[in-house]
Amino acid sequence: MKKQRKFCLYCGGQITKKKEDNVLRDCCLGCHSFFYDNPLPVVSTIVDDTRQILLVKRDRAPFKGHWCLPTGFAESGESIEDAALRELQEETGLKGRIIRLLDVDSYKSRFYGDLLFLTFVVEKSGGKISAGDDSIQARFWPINEIPPLAFRSNRRALAAYIKSKKDYWAILDAIEHRDDKALPARKAANSMTRRLITVILRNKEKMIDQWIEEMTTNPSTAEYRNSESRALYNICDKIISQITLWLGNVYDVDRIKNFYIKLGLERKKTGVKISGVLSALSLIRKHIWDVALAQGALQKNLDLYMTFELQRRMTIFFDLATFYITRGYEK
């Protein structure tokens, strides 16, 4: 159990409870100093190796003997990202690179009081797996064999991660299935498609940020300058997700039709001109290719067939999107 204050750390006076700003706080009867209990920051990491998640078995209370994500307290003098990577290395022996912040959750612990869990997606960059600080075992678990996790915040974060990867894994499964009986040229094309999809999803945040920045400065999309960033983010995020599904052959024309007709109707009701909407759509395609080229997903010496095939599928997608957005405006 978390211990309660009894004496003032400044003057040694007795601690009592007193309201300040309508909040009941610890207060010293002698020097009248108030004490503030802020949530302690806890960091966790999700390391995914081909649909296997890195877990550690705890060596101490709370939940001794239970499995959890590599988890620990952030320390003074370090960034929250550095804390996550430090805990990962201390508990598993692995070094990593932060990909993104996945989840933030509040939790009240009877051991430590109020906690703030921050969970990061991390890519393994080195080291050798071995149990370390606070853990008696570290290993990768297949995504469909994950044991019960000690902390609610770990369970919540892992569920969010699996949900975010569901479409991507469906794409990979679809491509792998096509590879089984594919000709060598088709297998090569599928390999490039996987590479492009991986680059798109890994760099999605960067693409969206660049797109939003251009949307608010480009003359052709001037009507979007007063739009909320969150609303723009959600639209772009949805479209990029659709593109990856389309490239992986797991997204059909009817879903595209329904989404873009609805989007066209919504944009029309808000008073945005169709020229601005179509320009915004073309800018998404521009930033996808810019990032893909910069990350080396499309190499200069690619087979022409593979290049044209990807271009063809991207063009069909955006042509369909343009057509059905226009239909939405005509309704």
Descriptive overview:
With about 325 residues, the chain is an alpha+beta fold. The chain folds into 3 domains: about 1-35, Ubiquitin Ligase Nedd4, Chain: W, CATH 2.20.70; about 40-160, Nucleoside Triphosphate Pyrophosphohydrolase (Alpha-Beta Complex), CATH 3.90.79.10; about 180-330, Histidine kinase N-terminal domain (Globin-like, Orthogonal Bundle). It is built from 8 helices and 10 strands. It has a 4-stranded mixed beta sheet with strand order 7-4-9-8, sandwiched between helices. A 3-stranded antiparallel beta sheet has the order 1-2-3, with no helix packed on it. Strands 6-5-10 form a 3-stranded antiparallel beta sheet, with no helix packed on it. Helix 2 runs parallel beside helix 5, helix 3 crosses helix 8 (about 305-330) and helix 4 (about 205-215) crosses helix 7. The protein is globular and about 75 Å long. It starts with 14 loop residues before the first strand and ends with a helix. The model is unreliable at about 300-305 (pLDDT under 50).
